[in-house]
Design a protein that fits this description.
The structure is a homotetramer of 195-residue chains. Chain A has 195 residues and is mainly α. The first copy, chain A, is 68% helix and 0% strand. The first copy, chain A, contains nine helices and no strands. In chain A, helix 4 packs antiparallel against helix 6 (102-114), helix 5 packs across helix 6 and helix 7 packs across helix 8. Chain A is elongated, with a radius of gyration of 20 Å. Chain A binds chain B through residues 33, 35, 105-106, 108-109, 111-113, 115-116, 124-125, 128, 132, 152-153, 155-157, 159-160, 162-168, 170-174, 180, 183-184, 186-192, and chain B through 33, 35-36, 105-106, 108-109, 111-112, 115-116, 124-125, 128, 132, 152-153, 155-157, 159-160, 162-168, 170-174, 180, 183-184, 186-192. Chain B binds a DNA duplex (31 and 31 nucleotides) through residues 7-14, 17, 38-40, 47-52, 54-55, 58-60.
Chain lengths: 195, 195, 195, 195
DNA sequence: GATTAACCGAGACGGTACGTCACGTCTTTAA
DNA sequence: TTAAAGACGTGACGTACCGTCTCGGTTAATC
């Protein structure tokens, strides 16, 4: 049985407020964009005071990041029996989200702010790890099946798969659809085969 | 008559001011970061009025971008005779710059702003193309030498090489030193070989 | 049964808390001034919660006013046998307190707030009456001795004596030391003599 | 001919803005009271940004004080030929204003804030001096005519006249109408007569 | 040489959002 | 029922930065 370590004194923070704030954040941001979203408007929409927001999040960006993390469904960790099939599925989904997802719209902004805000940096790292995890899992299963060389650094391979998506999305604007994904795998997979 | 398109009446713009502003931009940004850099401070440091700055650049970001382009030496397009050797050289240099360079410090910010500023978007695209060009050149030479399959999309391969750098730099913080670069090539190059 | 009107149920109020709050009020106010004194700080200093304070006093000003009334010793009602001697003694003491006393430091603030708070207005009136009482007493004794005309309004005379102190203290900053007090009496007393 | 000492560089401050701000201050304050008047509302009403206000006045109180000084017509320095007549006229007017004037409504507040704001303190002193000046002038003329003793401190007498008004207005609430004013003079004037 | 057009510095300006503060109330658990 | 702790709504505060505008004054090319 997990103990509620600290009995907590004083009035507890309202869980409703948490919910309302995060919901309002997504709603307002969806309408005007995160960049133009103001804390006053979020507070008003949430039926909450700014104080209450700042008591929970240290800055606008911290709030936005958490709102997004809640809004994001984790990528399913499908297992179709081969590295190629698994990665194709994953990459299709990733491509979708990179193109249409809310997160990718403001990734640059979050990264930017995280540069000078260690706390935000941590939260962002969590998010990234969560995104990378499925790829690593796929590769590990592949290795167990003998599809992947033992001596290859799986973390690096994961970055080779995800990196181009981020790069294209943020800097070149080029898409990474299913066809291109297949070609990418055509380049990468041969280098993973044992011997 | 050499085509100085417009003869221009009135007092010509001061070239000194251009220099001073760009220098001040780099100096101030180096001290407090681009995000915290204010135009007022840049103007003061350059011994120039804000009017003079805005007469030349349309926004803070446009200024910053030009300042950076000046500060960046192009990556040399070395030719050592093999794709592997060329890419290793290129990647070593890229890793260096990604880690210590001024540009990478504010890439996120520029990307962010470019989201809503088409003009900046263009300038940024130029920069990116300039960075990608050497990789494509290397791969084309490799193809000419028969080292690289004819049917592979070189632009995609370039993104596979550069993507992980950007990704690690912006999101995971993991380094990409010479050793890792070699391993990356170990994964990617086999997939490029003909037949 | 002796009339403790309400038998009171539940936990009784802590008398210690009263003391601690009033002491903390004077202490904090003495350090930062009443205007900058915050209720949170007082509560913390007193080792008491804000709730406990507000259960006893309806507002910051009400608290402050009571704290001051406790801190103020009444002016002694000396009787030296002549109006001049009595007033000189009274005015010397008044001058002292006006200059160094805590009360005069925040009179303006209390007055200000009393403008819109009838309850505080009453408490303040009590305080004022208490200050004026000795002067009226002095003048009445003088009248009984035949030193003062029967047809003069003693309340008005009291205001003529006290008024300049308040005025100087609040608005001009000029002092009212013994010498000046003597001169003031030199101006006022002749007009009080019978016939 | 008076030289415009400083040639002034940069864009000059808008005189219209000054006017608009002060007018808005009086208007808004007249509607909701000075205490409830907010700077945002004043700015909006004046068609001006808050920055522009704070560039001219360091605080809400400083602004209010200047607005009032502009709104206040100086007390006329009537000369009816006798100290008694002149003072009666002055006191009647002073009594009026003390009762109905805007200034007296917020004197306490200004005094209070001036306690911790030296700049405001100065402005307030100016105002006070301006109010006292007529009384001193009256007394000096009386002295020139031989109505007033040479050895009496006129500044003190002025305070004896004005002090009770301030005192009553701020602390006791008692009025000082014409009748009472006459009685006050009945008390004070005998003490001023030569020999 | 006078005119004119564009430049330059200084700095005021409108706008928009920021994050903070204090008051007095409310909601918990503990005594 | 009171107490301590502390979250909460309200409402204002003063600041920061952006990009624009308005001055007086300067610097060429043109007339």
């Amino acid at each position: 049985m997990v103990g509620t370590d600290t009995p907590r004194r004083g009035r507890p923070r309202s869980a409703d407020a948490d919910e309302a704030i995060l919901a309002a954040t997504l709603a307002v941001a969806g309408e005007v964009g995160f960049r133009s979203m103001s804390m006053d408007v979020v507070a008003e929409r949430a039926g909450v005071s700014k104080t209450t927001i700042y008591r929970r999040w240290s800055s606008k960006e911290a709030l936005v990041l958490e709102a997004l993390r809640r809004a994001i469904n984790p990528l399913d960790d499908v297992d179709l029996g081969s590295v190629r099939a698994d990665l194709e599925t994953y990459m299709a989904e990733l491509g979708q989200r990179m193109h249409h997802g809310k997160m990718s719209d403001l990734l640059p902004h979050l990264i930017d702010v995280a540069t000078q805000d260690p706390q935000l940096r941590c939260q962002l790292d969590d998010y990234v790890a969560q995104r990378r995890a499925p790829v690593i899992a796929i590769l590990e299963r592949g290795r167990a099946r003998g599809e992947v060389r033992r001596d290859v650094d799986l973390a690096l391979v994961a970055d080779v798969v995800i990196g181009p998506y981020v790069y294209r999305r943020l800097l070149t604007g080029a898409p990474l659809d299913g066809e291109v994904a297949a070609e990418l795998l055509g380049v990468v997979l041969p280098g993973l085969r044992p011997v």
